Amino acid sequence: MCFPPLVGREKERQQLRTAAVPGSLVLLSGAAGSGKTRLVRELPGAVDATVLTGYCPSRDEPFPFAPVIEALRRAAIPGGLSPLCGALHPLMPEHAERLPPPPPPTGSPAAEHHRTYRALTELLDSLGPTVLVLEDVHAIDPATRDLLYYLAPRLPAHLCLVLTYRPEELPRAFPVHALAARTPPGTPHHELALAPLNPRDLFALASRLLDAAPCGATDPRTAPADPAAETAAPPPAPDGSGAGVTAEDAERLHAWTGGLALAAVETLHHLACARAATGPGAGPAVPEEPPVPPTLRDWFLERLHALDRDTRHLVRAACVLEAPAADDVLARVADLGPSRAEKALSRACQLGLLRPAGPAALEVRTPLLRRVCHDSLPLGKHRHLHRAALTALSRGPAPPHARLARHAREAGLVEEWTDHAERAADQALSQGEDATAVTLLRDALTRHTLPAGRRCDLALKLGRAALTGISAQHTITLLRDVLATPGLPAPSRGELRMELGLLLLNQAAQGRTARSELVRAAAELTSRPDLAARAMCALAVPRSTPDPVDTHRRWMEQAVSAAHRSKDPAVAHSVSVNQATLLAQIGDPAAWTAALPDPGSPHVRPTPEALLRRREFARASLNLADAAVMLGHYERADHHLTDAATWSIASDVPYIRESAQALRLILDWQRGHWAGLDEEAERHLGPARLAHLHAVAAELTLVRSALALAQGDPAGARSHLALLEPAPGDDPAAPDPDHAVPVRAFAAGLLARLAIARGDPGEAWSRVEDLVSLVASKGVWVWAADLVPGMEALVPAGRGAEAQDLCARFRAGLRGAGAPAAAAALGRFEAALARHRGQGDRALHLYAETASAYRAMQRPYDAAQVREAAAHTRLDRSGGRSEEEGVAGLRAALEEYTALGAAWDAARVRRALRAHGVVAAPADGGGPRDPRLSPREGEIAALAGRGSTNREIAALLHLSPRTVETHVANALAKLGLRSRRDLASPPGRDHGGGVAAGSG
């Protein structure tokens, strides 16, 4: 086992160094593995004395004086000892040449012992300033114990005695604290106790060990201590991360090990070795259940095997039960009578193996101990204990079916396993704990001998439970497998297909495949109007399928009729939610007054029926918020997002919570609240679970793409957008997501802007053409707002007539719709067309109206873009006043872009101003600029230092690549640097000529 950096023990280290003075007694206590040995290892070099260390071996028949003799083996025996010390020849033959001749035998064992005590006392006194450390004196042999009783009243003036021990294992025959009372009057004595490490300590430890040299580069078990290097662990970073380690990693490590230093060190060392071999993985630095290193496993097993039989059986029972259990349950599982169980419980608690968990229950101290103990059970004992647990827990009035399912499975009782798993899932669903139900049902469906009918029933429940979760791919695969079962009745097949379609639609974002399944489900469920209504109302919500909006309305009419026939209030609630969603998605103002399920009061525990209404209300709130964000009703979006958060529970309905978070970040983007937005979006994208929630991941990625483009990183924007496109070689079993039209439109609009910046209007139009056709065929023109950059590109592409016709269709499609965002985008399109036709006054009027609309929506970035376009319209005219007004408009747009941090747009405006003889200084990016560089050189050097190529910088700043090349060369020469890679230092840091330039 390895000696780690010393963290979390600074106070005790100082106390030990202060206490370890000649003529003193120091008692250091701590549980097994708490780090006592690591702490006393700090003494050499820290005290002005020789440090001798010996260990008390754990043996049934220990060697007499074992720790003292071991310590003295490394001592420098002085000359001039009295003949008395010759009595030590039998104990210390390796020092025979330094000891006086052996004295004649006394003939009395008591006299021999007394002579040995005197000889050892004299020898210790002769060594000069010495610290004698005796480790693990809870396992002290009788001879050494008696020696300490003899030594304490005669403690040599040059000797400091340090004793370490485990208080839970200290025998009654050796009350170690009584030694202090035996020392001479005035003798200093100190008592130090080591508590478990806290999460902050473990954060520092993990940061050091997981960022250490590759595993095996040095042997930490034999490397000499380096107090300067090891004792000062780094404090946590302000953002709670370091060396890839987060505060959450530290919390997980603390929960797993209970703060036991040895367990934490060995776990981290094992993880560090795995990192060195395979590289850091995508998951957390410390997983929820880390692998158990063999060294740590064997250390725990050695402790367990040293227990008496009853205590060992009781600890095993607690490990099998896993959850806190009452004393009588533990006794029954361990098969112990009341008297024996009471003694075993007392011993297990005393040794720190069990701990109280409430007023009348006990549990295993750490999950790590439970895992080691449980995994070490032989198969026969494993099944026997789980059967005993199944029997013991079944006796109560409210059997815990989830726990019973686990015990039945582990005991090999497959029928009981399935029964209890289904009952537990039913309980979880009735209480709104869908994630728990999914886990139970997935587990039950792994049984290979499950009858077909039972398999179908469980799969249906799983499909319903998975609808509110995040990762649905496993459930989708399972439902498809069950659908392939021959002989399924049509209603069962239809219900399975409906659940599959809903999962494909909501979680997997595979709209076209989902539509096919839902249409077939509706046909197969003619005898079940309650289920048919759910399939039909899902088909009624507009998606990326080519169905016109009238088709969606007809599906909704059929769903309403089926819900009425079903006479089921829950079905009526589901249909009403989707009806409001349909209206909102097509921009119908009636959506905001549609009747929704009553969620009740948040302060009242809901009945199962009320819980369903709350779920439907939360779903409605999320759907309406999504539509409000797309339409431009941002105050409504805020209101509905608050409702969605209020009436959903993150652990039970993670889909709603994650989706709502993404919508809030989109709102921040639209409103120009960009400070820290990219970091927040990246943080929400971090959890691996979002890899399965495609719609949310896409929205977060779009926020990062839009920010990267606006802030001057078009290459970064393209790399983010590439994540949303199909990748070659993707798994055919998991098709690429078919994202919603507004999501695809957002991405297409960004790609169109990039193409326009490259001077390629044809590509810009091609980026949006298919989506424009889809929007037109469906008749849902409120989805077209983000497509306008590509539509406008038809004009410079020489296709003005097509643009005019498209604009007319856009205008007609918005008639009667309440869609401020699409209406403002239409105004921009109409203004661009008026400018193209030479109708400057009309264009300016339309731009003014559009800018006002964007400001009313609180969309400052769009308002600045419109102001810029209006300024160019004025500059189209010849004449002094128009040019002045145009330049003033560009200056105003530049100010707005600069305030937002829209460096890409600001650079474009500065170029336009230069073309009109106005020089606007580049923005300083908020950081200090190296005084050796001009503003332009500093701006270009900062971009080059971030990794941008000359061509990318030229496109961003609207310069020629040759000009950029010249500025980079000048910056390198002025700063004395060899390569543009050297420009990558953080702002303000001088690395022999480093740059600290603004990014402009």
List the main descriptive attributes of the protein structure presented here.
1000 residues, mainly alpha, 5-stranded parallel sheet, two-stranded antiparallel ribbon, 9 strands, 4% strand, flat, disordered C terminus
Verbal overview:
The chain has 1000 residues and is mostly helical. Helix content is 57%, strand content 4%. A 5-stranded parallel β-sheet has the order 2-3-4-1-5. A two-stranded antiparallel sheet has the order 6-7. A hairpin with a 5-residue loop joins β8 and β9.
Structural class: mainly alpha
Q: Tally the helices.
A: 44
Distance between the termini: 54 Å
Main sheet: strands, sense, barrel: 5 strands, parallel
Strand order of the largest sheet: 2-3-4-1-5
Strands, count:
9
Low-confidence stretches: 216-243, 986-1000
**Roughly how many Å is the radius of gyration?**
38 Å
State the share of residues found in helices, binned by percent: 55-70%
Shape: flat
Oligomer: single chain
Strand content: under 5%
Mean pLDDT: 87
How are the secondary structure elements laid out?
Elements: H1 10-19, E1 25-30, H2 36-40, E2 50-55, H3 66-72, H4 109-126, E3 130-135, H5 142-151, E4 159-165, H6 178-182, E5 189-194, H7 199-209, H8 227-230, E6 241-242, E7 245-246, H9 247-257, H10 261-278, H11 294-305, H12 309-321, H13 327-334, H14 338-350, E8 354-356, E9 362-364, H15 367-375, H16 379-393, H17 401-411, H18 414-430, H19 434-444, H20 452-466, H21 473-483, H22 490-506, H23 511-524, H24 529-540, H25 549-566, H26 569-585, H27 608-631, H28 634-646, H29 654-671, H30 677-685, H31 694-710, H32 714-722, H33 741-757, H34 761-778, H35 788-792, H36 800-813, H37 820-836, H38 840-857, H39 860-875, H40 880-900, H41 903-915, H42 935-945, H43 950-957, H44 961-975
Parallel strand pairs: 1-4, 1-5, 2-3, 3-4
Antiparallel strand pairs: 6-7, 8-9
